[in-house]
Write a structure and sequence with these properties.
single chain, mainly beta, two-stranded antiparallel ribbon, globular
Amino acid sequence: MNPIVFGFDRQLKLTSLKVIPMSDIQTNKFPHPIWHLISESNSVPTKDFTYGASIKGMHPAVKGATPDLLEPGVAYRLMIDTGTIKKEHDFIPTARTP
């Protein structure tokens, strides 16, 4: 699969980041994130990050959890929180081009 890189128009100190399959959001009252990072207080401001990569100052919400692989053609929702800003972005990964 092609790498998925998310970017912002300015640096943000993230307090929470989740990626959830849209099918889970549509069918479950409490959808399960396939990637969930949190920061209690020391996240480093960032302007971009790659799906599944570590982000300085953040750690998995569940100790030892690793991100699930994304599937090409499947819709997902990225949810970020900075404490004062909450945003969502829907995306669909594409298969790696030869």
